[in-house]
Amino acid sequence: MTSFGQRLRAALDAHGPLCVGIDPHEALLRSWGLDVSAAGAREFGLRTVDAAAGRTGVVKPQVAFYERFGAAGFAALEDVMSAARSAGLLVIADAKRGDIGTTMDGYAAAWLMPGAPLEADAVTLSPYLGADALHAAFSTATSHDKGAFVLAATSNPEAAPVQRARVDEEETVAERVAHDVAARNIGAPGSLGPIGLVVGATVDRRSFGLTDVVLAGTPILAPGFGAQGAEPRDLSRLFGYVASQVVASESRSILSAGPDRLAERIRERAALYRGESDG
Q1: Is 96 a catalytic residue?
Q2: 257 lies in a domain?
Q3: Range of the domain at 204
Q4: Domain contains 53
Q5: Whole-structure pTM over 0.70, yes or no?
Q6: Active site residue: 25, 68, 96, 267, which one?
Q7: How many domains does the structure of the chain reveal?
Q8: Per-position DSSP letters for the chain, written without gaps between them
Q9: What is the CATH number of the domain that holds 221?
Q10: Could you report the per-residue pLDDT of 34-84, keeping only the tens digit for each?
């Protein structure tokens, strides 16, 4: 198997940067005519996978919308992620896990170990117990050709005072996280490393210290496109030199099309991004 960074680069080159979020929250389930249940969330996810396959390269299930249904919800998520990976899609589990010691070992085994029921290609992680506390996830990812995306500069406004706070006179918290991640990618095969960062498309990343130099070679998962305000035409302006490394995540703007128009909406949005990235 090739590394996660190599597989991600191939997906971006083949399909463009669009990542389709799989977010079966209650309002969307109802608008799709589905039960607000684990079975409804499973059907929602499988329909989204069918619509995304061949039209984009990456999907991102939001774990919380399955977890809320307990054991049945996790079983539904397993089916959705398995179907997506079987369809040739890269799966980023949006779980935002982060802990220390053996607890982090457990999270790494749950999401990144080959053959695990919840196996994904990558998982989102929170570094606010210290990036070094995520070592188990980083190690599991690199050992098994998996990936991870670490929160750095998120789009929710209440995060800015923490993430832009200065560790010292030269470095913000977000920048320290980015440097720690970059160190994990040294020597990785291909142009992208296995460990990426979450950088919101609606924030001024440079005010967090996340310059092109800091982000070079690092995959970037960028929520904030679509319903949150950023558009495909903004990609180059927002990310400049590192725009080709961006996985542009959209959820509501696509899922609101409903099951009958979902595939067409994905095709349309993916084409816009490809036009932007090719320009």
Answers
A1: yes
A2: yes
A3: 4-14+92-278
A4: no
A5: yes
A6: 96
A7: 1
A8: ---HHHHHHHHHHHH-SEEEEE---HHHHHHTT--SSHHHHHHHHHHHHHHHBTTBSEEEEBTHHHHTTHHHHHHHHHHHHHHHHHTT-EEEEEEEE---HHHHHHHHHHHHSTT-TT--SEEEE--TT-GGGGHHHHHHHHHTT-EEEEEEE-SSGGGHHHHTSBSSSS-BHHHHHHHHHHHHTTT-SSSS-SEEEEE-TTS-GGGGT--HHHHTT--EEE--BGGGSB-GGGHHHHHGGGGGGEEEEESHHHHTT-TTTHHHHHHHHHHHHHHHHH-
A9: 3.20.20.70
A10: 999 999 999 999 999 999 999 999 999 999 999 999 999 999 999 999 999
